[in-house]
Write a structure and sequence with these properties.
alpha/beta; binds flavin-adenine dinucleotide
Length: about 270
Amino acid sequence: MQIKTDYLVIGSGIAGLSFALKAAQKGKVILITKSNQDESNTKYAQGGIAAVWHDTDSFEKHIEDTLIAGAGLCDEKIVRLVVTEGTERVKELINLGTQFDKNQKGEYDLAKEGGHSESRILHYKDITGYEIERALLNKINKDPNIEVYDHYYAIDIITQHHLGELITSKTPGITCYGAYILNTKNGHIDTVLSKITVMATGGAGHVYATTTNPKIATGDGIAMVYRAKGHVKDMEFVQFHPTSLYNPEENPSFFNYRSYSWIWCCVKKPKR
Ligand SMILES: Cc1cc2nc3c(=O)[nH]c(=O)nc-3n(C[C@H](O)[C@H](O)[C@H](O)COP(=O)(O)OP(=O)(O)OC[C@H]3O[C@@H](n4cnc5c(N)ncnc54)[C@H](O)[C@@H]3O)c2cc1C
């Protein structure tokens, strides 16, 4: 089957869902995801999301903290962009229905995490990512301009290579026309032709023997772009979640919030 759309979004984590909602204001969106709609790293994010919130805090402080934590590897222009836009983007999540914990005064209960000189982490219990994913999917599923194809696996993006041209990494103007997608329930492969294709397939935690990332984190998007002779860069900034108790029989190593809370209990109450 051949399907045509304005935007093809591959991946249903915070990146893909956020993009899809904005793109839907401009045209028809097809969002494909290889497992259940909500399966993503986003769903398992726990601690929270950092943004400048209080008057005592400032963009400059957050930028400085980030550059120090980046130990000279960060592109300052990008750090400035992310930090200065961060507060507005979090407000958008709130307007979409995401809840964050508040204190008794009714103000957001901001946590202070490693590397931050101010309290600026908004969180929802210990399941912040789950809550963000819930709110985004709720909007996505009500948007008439967005169709979600779950259990569809993007195999490869389509370029001039599929029209018989020889493409190398030095070919100028490599163009993406869409993707081949596998329906994992019936084994059929469909072609999606799209004016714009967005790769939001998350990280590659499962290339390691031990990981806390969910099983979908297999670096598919990175591999698809690499095979299409696109440029893959800044791999050292692909997030993985490093906090875990190593248990050789468990893969992914803990990733649900209940075991996380359990670990916290042990850390906080060492006398028991
Ligand atoms: C346990 C844990 C705790 C974390 N805690 C925090 C935290 O407190 N704060 C924080 O900021 N970050 C945290 N993170 C990191 C954060 O979750 C990720 O950086 C973020 O969610 C990545 O979002 P994403 O949209 O880029 O990718 P993802 O959320 O991983 O979404 C990728 C999507 O692409 C789909 N996909 C992949 N390959 C294909 C394919 N071939 N075809 C179709 N679909 C495909 C997947 O199924 C998935 O839906 C944590 C991560 C983990 C695992």
